[in-house]
Amino acid sequence: MGVVGPRSATGTPWLPVDAGHVPGPEALRTLVPELDTCDLYVCGPSPWVQAVAQDARTAGVPATALHVEHFSW
């Protein structure tokens, strides 16, 4: 699953502009209903990955289930 489009300048920065008003942990639970029982893989530019990872931790994703890969230019 991908989250595409220009990023929100306010609210949750890893979401698209039209969804930036949704709190990140809530957005993750909506996008990934099985969040409590799966591993979460996040890859992208470092600031984006860091924002998603922080919201994942806030949503209760354990460190052992969170996998991140940072892309740098």
Class computed from helices, strands and strand pairing: alpha+beta
The termini sit apart by 23 Å
Q: Helix segment count? A: 2
Residue stretches low in confidence (pLDDT < 50, at least 5 long) are none
What general form does the structure show? Answer: globular
| Largest sheet, strands/sense/barrel | 2 strands, parallel
Mean of residue pLDDT values: 92
The spatial strand order of the largest sheet comes to 1-2
Question: Helical content, roughly?
Answer: 25-40%
Keywords:
73 residues, alpha+beta, two-stranded parallel sheet, 2 helices, 29% helix, globular
Give a short overview.
The protein has 73 residues and is of the alpha+beta class. It has helices at residues 24-31, 46-58, and strands at 40-45, 66-71.
